[in-house]
């Protein structure tokens, strides 16, 4: 399969914990990477590999994976975390093209 | 610190060829994948294709017939051409640097891929 499925929208109360999920067959052999995108800006990598954060990404962001599902967890969500989040991996078939999930709009209440 | 600077024509007519270039500053060109991604207005990200430093390419099957990605290692640049554009190709186009590898997890290989450096994006509008 060449699809990654995300919930279109998720909301979280300020300071609470939220999990954003991404499902796809390729995730059984590929770790997802996660990107945050704010309006009018380029995406920013927030999680890659098993659970790695690039320099400058707060440690409230974490990643996990189980079976065909990858998850991005924000522990103690802040107002500035309101954004669109996309998962990404290679497809496990064919020439291994890259695929993105459809994106999840996170609202911090 | 690696930076990607991209440029190209922002307004095209239907049937013309989109042409964008991305230059890599402050880092090595070899050992990475160099991708193009686009985002139509109000929609999600769509991967277009990638190239490595040796010129090997991989394209989105849905765009493959119209896409050509090339590399000029002497200038640390890579380029995108998308032929026969229509209004559906109107989008913000991004270039990005990709890294991949594999790790062993309980006796099995697990692979990873991520794009850690992105260009700022180029808005391309197709209109007659």
Short summary:
The complex is a heterodimer of chains A (109) and B (128). Helices cover 0% and strands 47% of the residues of chain A.
Summarize the biggest pleated sheet of chain A. Answer: 6 strands, mixed
Low-confidence stretches of chain B: none
Question: How many helix segments of chain A?
Answer: 0
Multimeric state: heterodimer
Order of helices and strands of chain A: EEEEEEEEEEE
The helical percent of chain B reads: under 10%
**Proportion of beta-strand residues of chain B:** over 45%
**Class from secondary-structure proportions of chain A:** mainly beta
Key phrases:
heterodimer, A: 109 residues, mainly beta, 6-stranded mixed β-sheet, 4-stranded antiparallel β-sheet, 11 strands, globular, B: 128 residues, 7-stranded mixed β-sheet
Structure report:
The model of chain A has no long low-confidence stretch (mean pLDDT 95). Chain A is 0% helix and 47% strand. Chain A is mostly beta strands and 109 residues long. Chain B contains no helices and eleven strands. In chain B, strands 2, 4, 5, 6, 9, 10 and 11 form a seven-stranded mixed β-sheet that branches. Chain B has a four-stranded antiparallel β-sheet with strand order 1-3-8-7, with no helix packed on it. Classes of the chains: A mainly beta (109), B mainly beta (128). Chains A and B meet through strand 4, strand 5, strand 9 and strand 10 of A and strand 5, strand 9 and strand 10 of B. Strand 4 of chain A pairs parallel with strand 10 of chain B, so a sheet runs across the interface.
